[in-house]
């Protein structure tokens, strides 16, 4: 089964300093048809005004990822994790048994645009943890592993049976991925335009694959390079 999630169908929350689009139910946006995709629970596309952000708040037993598209994001948490990350950097915080954290726009003059992603942890009440990684090794048309379970296969050591890849696609550049029918997959277009087996996807659009197998071809469209996240997830 292939599930389509157009950008225009997402929930939207505006709070003055924040413009947020929600792929799945979150906060004030609730849709029982969109509660998540397996262990993938949240993909919020956030635009935050200069100097504004999310004041300290608490989470537990959730893997929280931030992927910056433009601008700079400042993170601080009660476990000692913190720093400022820029475009194409992936930040990971495992909330574990409980952690308080804040996310602010690090600039007083420019907005920050990023994806906030939540993944259900595969263990309860672990020690909180924090790390981030840049995308300096990325090459056009090549899937780059950004996170894997406990870091065993590379990337950040997320606490879930998940492989997260990033991919850049210039115009006319293609990449291929072979699906295993026993896994689920989620393709999120962060920026730009891509074609996937005849479907044209714009920024914010997504496809989910359940019980699908065989090869999928992704091709970049338009003048600007596309930026894609590919989630390889356990079924169900």
Q: What can be said about this structure in brief?
A:
The protein is mostly beta strands. It has a domain at 10-136: Jelly Rolls (Sandwich). The protein is built from no helices and 22 strands.
CATH architectural designation of the domain at 10-136? Sandwich
* Overall mean pLDDT: 95
CATH superfamily of the domain at 10-136: Jelly Rolls
Distance N terminus to C terminus? 13 Å
Order of helices and strands: EEEEEEEEEEEEEEEEEEEEEE
What would CATH call the class of the domain at 10-136?
A: Mainly Beta
Number of strands: 22
Radius of gyration: 17 Å
Given the C-alpha coordinates, what overall shape results? globular
Query: In DSSP terms, counting alpha (H) and pi (I) runs of 4 or more, how many helices?
Result: 0
**Portion of residues within helices:** under 10%
Low-confidence stretches: none
Largest sheet: 7 strands, mixed
Strand order of the largest sheet: 1-20-17-22-15-13-14
Structural class: mainly beta
CATH topology of the domain at 10-136: Jelly Rolls
Strand content: over 45%
Structure description:
With 236 residues, the protein is mostly beta strands. It has a domain at 10-136: Jelly Rolls, CATH 2.60.120.10. It has no helices and 22 strands. It has strands at residues 2-5, 11-14, 18-22, 40-48, 53-59, 62-70, 73-77, 82-85, 90-94, 99-105, 112-120, 129-133, 144-149, 156-158, 163-169, 174-179, 183-191, 193-196, 199-201, 206-210, 214-221, 226-234. The strands form four sheets. A seven-stranded mixed β-sheet has the order 1-20-17-22-15-13-14, with no helix packed on it. A seven-stranded antiparallel β-sheet has the order 2-3-4-11-6-9-12, with no helix packed on it. A four-stranded antiparallel β-sheet has the order 5-10-7-8, with no helix packed on it. The two termini are 13 Å apart.
């Amino acid at each position: 089964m292939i599930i389509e999630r157009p950008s225009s169908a997402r929930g939207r929350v505006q709070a003055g300093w924040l413009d947020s689009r929600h792929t799945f139910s979150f906060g004030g946006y609730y849709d029982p048809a969109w509660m998540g995709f397996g262990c993938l629970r949240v993909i919020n596309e956030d635009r935050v005004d200069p100097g504004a952000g999310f004041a300290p708040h608490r989470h537990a037993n959730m893997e929280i990822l931030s992927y910056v598209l433009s601008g700079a994001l400042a993170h601080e948490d009660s476990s000692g994790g913190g720093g400022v990350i820029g475009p194409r950097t992936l930040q990971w915080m495992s909330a574990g048994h409980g952690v308080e954290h804040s996310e602010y726009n690090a600039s007083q003059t420019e907005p920050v645009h990023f994806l906030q992603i939540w993944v259900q942890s595969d263990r309860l009440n672990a020690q909180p943890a924090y790390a981030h990684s840049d995308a300096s090794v990325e090459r056009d048309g090549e899937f780059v592993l950004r996170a894997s379970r406990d870091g065993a296969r590379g990337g950040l050591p997320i606490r879930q049976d998940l492989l997260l890849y990033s991919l850049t696609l210039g115009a006319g550049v293609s990449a291929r991925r072979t699906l295993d029918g026993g896994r689920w997959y989620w393709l999120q277009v962060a920026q730009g335009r891509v074609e996937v087996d005849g479907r044209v996807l714009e920024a914010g659009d997504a496809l989910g694959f359940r019980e699908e197998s065989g090869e999928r071809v992704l091709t970049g469209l338009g003048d600007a390079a596309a930026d894609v996240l590919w989630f390889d997830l356990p079924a169900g």
